[in-house]
Amino acid sequence: MSVASVPAERLEDLNVRETADLMPLVAGLSMTNLGPGRNKIFLRGQSDGPLAERTQSTVGVYIDESPLVFSDTNPDFRLIDVERVEVLRGPQGTLFGAGSLGGTYRIITNKPDADALAGQVSIQGGLVQSGDLNYGADGMLNVPLARGRSALRVAAFYDRYGGFIDDTSLGIDNINDTVIYGGRLSYLTDLGDRWSLLLTANAQKIDLDDTQYFSPEIGELLRSNLVPEPRADRIVQTGAVFTGDLDWAEFTSATTFVHRRITNQSDASRTVPDLLGLSLRPSPFTARDKIRTLIQEMRLAHSGPRVKWLVGGFYLSRAQNLRTSFVVPGAGEAFATDGFPSDEVFAEDRDDDVKEYAIFGDASVRLTPRWEVSGGLRLSRGNLDVSSLTTGVVSGQTGEIDLQNAKTSVTPRYSVSYRPSDEQHFYVQAAKGFRIGGVNINTPISALFDPDLDDDDPDEDGDDVLKTQTFSEDSLWSYEAGLKARLFDNRLDVDVAAFFVQWKNIQTDQILPSGFLFVTNAGNAENYGLEFQAAAHVSTRTTVTFAAIWNDPQLVEANAFLNADKGDRLPAIARFTGSASVTHVRPLGRGLDLRLGADYSYVGRSSLFFDRDQSPAMGDFHRLNLRAGLEGEQWQALLAVTNLINSRGNTFAYGNSFSLNATSQFNPLRPRTVSLALTRSF
Questions:
Q1: Residue 358 phi/psi, 5° resolution?
Q2: Contacts of 322 (CB under 8 A, 6+ apart)
Q3: SS3 readout for 351-380
Q4: I want to staple 239 with a disulfide (CB 3.0 to 4.6 A). Which of 256, 530, 544, 632 is the partner?
């Protein structure tokens, strides 16, 4: 298995505070860039498209034992007081279930320590070129309650990111200010007789004053919207992990509850003339998404000298309510004679209820001191029940729909590994990933990728109509061979893997000409690639790291509705990305160390949609960061310059579905920023 682990020391050295900061450190990790809490994560080029509406994530997102996402975006928990971050590449469906067909991203937090009182406080500030100020603070306190038996750990943070986009129509400068704040509370107690209980609560709130794209036709870092586009994203996760040693196995019970509420507004003004035949006018499209998820997992794990095994059961219950509203001033008067007297030209109240049940197992057997075989299997059942009520002149009539979709899936994994020495590890692996199908009310019949659908001869029972409101499950097989090695007396760490992926019935969110989103299956794809990660310890003071991926994800069978052809690459995925960093530590005496570092990254060219010829291009940019720090026994000062060359690379060519056909959309790198962080520990 290909796993990248980034420890706390490296996160602190590079001032990593969010998921996007990890991309140069982990080969094969990429993301969209709409702003905190709005992004999709991709691994190894397994992109189903850059939009996030109703398709399940291709990458599982976890904090400790708790899954956080289903069809929603990465909540982007701040990386504060964490032990490490793990990125598991390739399908992880055997252990992590549906939605981990590209891999899994896990935040492992620091646990309460019952033996020591400890704390840390940090403050940060920064100057953004052509923008507002950045500033923030975070802190941690660990308090033993019963020494050696129980402890409480508290972490809190507040970050403000200054805006840098100006809106000429609204007359607002630096419109995209962002505030993120939250915290974590955890309690660990030893129950005796080798049993323990860990209780956790994570909470975070993201307030975006506006979106962060600009229109190059208007000017550098400028745009002209008629309606502001704010967003608020609140997530609360609570969990209980109960563990015990049974002598012959370790028992774990993990219970998680996640409550997420998202509200956002989009400027839909530019779709009004074509959609309704009315003149251009300020017209907001608002959405409120409320998600409640309960997850229960129990497992037994045994680790012996030759045999290791794990078995478990999983249950998920998820209720999502989405309410959308499109208001066009004056529309009620224009369409009153047609029976639509309201300015609300479209409204939908939709409920998605998901139930997932699974049993799983994984085992490895050491055949000899050098050879090991392993495998796993997951049997799962997913049920989706969707009810939707739409009203307004755009929907044509009041419509109420209640549909179901269900799927039983078997997800296997096989692996063989060989260790010629303690410093070298070769492996080959085959694994399957999957996502359950779903329901989408807006899908045009011509957009369906289903050879059994006959839109020229619909049957009397309405089966074809049903197919226009469902999309198929997708699945993939991944085959990889890799090497992990420590060479030259442990002075060079190497992790290299070659992979080949076959992906069937790719689920994807797409945009209708009106700007509304729909879901369909894009077709089938294949991807082959090579990823490389290395750390060279040039001396006891200097370390150089490299990370790169080359891959070529292509459609081998395409949905004609998307105007894509065989050979078109999957959207939002560059053929090549790479990065390098250097860190040097120089002792200054009297307990002081000078830490110097630089990192460089390049992201290759990619396209926004499957149709490469007509799709907006993005990527093909460079980024350079510098940092210098002074560190004492219990304090640190870090001066950093991010985006030193002030690159304006288009990280993501999308911001608003309703105006995408009318104007170019450009999400730039954050302009050159000079920041200072001060940290004190005790």
A1: -155, 150
A2: 287, 288, 289, 290, 348, 349, 350, 352
A3: EEEEEEEEEEEEEEEECCCCEEEEEEEEEE
A4: 256
Closest CA relative to residue 193, chosen from 254, 149, 255 = 149
Question: Using CA atoms, how far apart are residues 419 and 163, in angstroms rounded to an integer?
Answer: 51
* CA 676 – CA 127 distance, rounded (Å): 9
DSSP state for residue 570 in the 8-state scheme: P
Q: What is the mean pLDDT of residues 202-210?
A: 98
Look-up: residue for tokens 């997420």? Answer: 260
Radius of gyration (Cα) for the chain, nearest Å? 26
Residue with tokens 């070659």: 498
pLDDT in tens, 327-367: 999 999 999 988 889 999 999 999 999 999 999 999 999 99
Those residues with Cβ within 8 angstroms of residue 382's Cβ, 6 or more apart along the chain or in another chain: 98, 354, 355, 356, 406, 407, 408, 409, 436
Please tell me whether residue 635 adopts helix, strand or coil conformation: strand
| Dihedral sign, Cα of residue 449, residue 455, residue 457, residue 458 | positive
Nearest residue to 412 (alpha-carbon basis) of 450, 380, 370: 380
pLDDT of residue 51: 87
* 3-class DSSP assignment, residue 19: helix
- The CA-atom distances, in angstroms, between 463 and each of 98, 399, 444, 452 are 27, 18, 15, 11
Closest CA to 607 of 595, 598, 617: 617
CB 206, CB 76: distance < 8 Å: yes
CB atoms within 10 A of CB 40: 24
In whole angstroms, give the CA distance from residue 526 to residue 563.
18
**Strands (DSSP E) found in 490-541:** 492-504, 507-511, 517-521, 523-537
Tens digits of per-residue pLDDT, 477-524?
Answer: 999 999 999 999 999 999 999 999 999 999 999 898 889 888 889 999
Q: What is the mean pLDDT of the chain?
A: 92
- What phi, psi does 659 have (nearest 5°)? -120, 5
With beta carbons less than 8 A apart as the criterion, state whether 579 and 602 touch: yes
- Please spell the DSSP secondary structure of 125-152, one letter per residue: EEEETTS-EEEEEEEEEEEEEETTTEEE
- 357: its two tokens: 């049940």
**Coil, strand or helix: which one is 486?**
strand
Query: b or e along 478-504 (b: 16 or more beta carbons within 10 Å of the residue's beta carbon)?
Result: bbbebebbbeeeeeebbbbbebebebb
* Cα–Cα dist 22/41, whole Å: 11
Phi and psi based region of residue 193 (left: phi greater than 0; alpha: psi -120 to 50; beta: remaining): left
User: What residue has token string 């992109």?
Assistant: 47
By the 8 A CB rule, do 44 and 102 touch? yes
- 97 backbone φψ class: left, alpha, beta (φ>0; ψ -120 to 50): left
Query: In this structure, what token pair is assigned to residue 100?
Result: 């981990």
